[in-house]
Design a protein that fits this description.
This protein is of the alpha/beta class. The chain is built from 9 helices and 12 strands. A hairpin with a 7-residue loop joins strand 6 (175-178) and strand 7. The longest helix has 29 residues, at 343-371.
Length: 395
């Protein structure tokens, strides 16, 4: 197969020809990579006055081919000229120089880029993703659910008995994939407990450019008028987890995707489920009750309605990596009201809530696919000078 590719959109006469050319472009990217080099994609955008040329190197393009196909088709429809050539030799995974090109502190956020990540960063993340989840990156779907309970995994497997499962036991953050054509299915990852795991997995999943991430977890209710089993829909986050403080300043507001929240609210109402909307207090301290006075003071100042250990971390990385995200939690205990999470009570709550919780979120994702088959709008988490392959509306 030739290792170079170029096409100009004005020379293409039909939708079928665009699709054929973009498929060919992705084939060539994969061939270049398989032959030991990184493919370089160069896009000339005649409509852009200040940034007519954007370029970027890729690694393992097969793992997110659905994304490349979609974005290159958008560019072709806008009239872009797209070229693909070999860039440079791939570095082996044990080459010390690999990490020289993965430092996100070196990102030039003023420079338009074709892809958010360097090829070396992609290599490492996809390798670690397979290690942590026990599944191939190619198995991941566009819509990602995060949980920290095995019970949600069981519900997912009962609903999708043919889903792809981890290939070995003892996986740290096992993933399960309900695969559909064009990667339009759903992946569920059991991330375990705590913000460190939440950061680790979202660092790596971000490389796959998912259309949405939703945290499906449990929380401690903090308000008088909440009952065990009520739901909490996050509208903001108190970042007390600490794991991203040195990377993203605390004074940057983090909010969920508006459309995801709209759909989650509609589904909660359709099921007639009690719920509240508000701020989630995310802590790294599982035993925060043992420092009650200090923590409660922070909770009061933040007006938080629930406390957990992962939601703000997932949302912050969603913001960093430009991925629409949301959080739907279920109240499993009320530690400030004499209802701490104790074993027998917790098990009854889990049995009563696990089916409905996952069913509502899956229904929301199906609404997203129906209303926005090519991905949710993400302008709210994109800077004005970031195309990330964008077309004419991302000037």
């Amino acid at each position: 197969m030739a290792d170079r590719f170029k096409f100009q959109s004005e020379d293409i006469q039909s939708e079928a020809e665009i699709n054929d050319q973009v498929e060919k472009a992705c084939d060539i990217m994969e061939s270049i990579y398989d032959n030991g080099e990184y493919p370089n994609v160069l896009v000339k955008r005649s409509w852009s006055k200040h940034n007519p040329v954007i370029t970027g190197e890729m690694a393992r393009p097969k793992s997110y081919r659905w994304y490349l196909l979609r974005e290159l088709k958008k560019l072709a429809h806008k009239g872009a000229e797209i070229s693909i050539i070999p860039s440079r030799d791939r570095l082996s995974m044990n080459d010390p120089a690999l990490l020289d090109n993965t430092d996100e502190d070196e990102w030039d956020i003023t420079q338009k880029k074709l892809f958010l990540f360097s090829p070396e960063r992609i290599e490492i993340s996809l390798n670690r993703l397979q290690h942590y989840t026990g599944t191939k990156p190619e198995d991941f779907q566009r819509y990602i659910l995060f949980t920290n309970y095995d019970m949600h995994v069981q519900v997912f497997q009962d609903k999708f008995p043919g889903c792809v499962k981890p290939r070995r036991s003892g996986i740290q953050m096992p993933a399960y994939h309900h695969k559909l054509a064009d990667n339009k299915g759903i992946s569920l990852v059991n991330i375990g407990v705590g913000p460190a795991n939440a950061k680790t997995i979202t660092d790596h999943i971000a490389v796959l450019r998912p259309d949405a991430m939703i945290m499906v977890g449990h929380c401690g209710g903090l308000r008088n008028h909440q009952d065990i089993g009520d739901f909490v829909l996050a509208t903001g986050f108190m970042r007390n987890d600490g794991v991203l403080d040195d990377i993203l300043p605390l004074n940057i507001p983090i909010t969920p995707n508006y459309l995801l929240n709209v759909y989650l609210k509609e589904v909660l109402d359709s099921y007639d489920r009690n719920h509240r909307m508000g701020t989630i207090f995310t802590t790294a301290n599982r035993n925060w009750e043992f420092m009650k006075r200090r923590t409660v003071e922070q909770i009061h100042m933040s007006r938080s309605i629930a406390v957990d250990m992962e939601s703000a971390t997932v949302a912050t990385n969603g913001y960093r990596y430009r991925i629409p995200n949301a959080t739907l939690l279920c109240v499993s205990d009320k530690p400030l009201h004499g209802k701490p999470k104790l074993s027998d009570d917790a098990q009854k709550f889990y049995d009563d809530s696990k089916q409905l919780h996952l069913a509502m979120v899956i229904k929301v994702l199906n609404i997203c696919k129906e209303n926005y088959p090519e991905g949710l709008p993400n302008a709210s988490i994109r800077a004005m000078n970031e195309p990330l392959m964008g077309g004419q509306d991302e000037e």
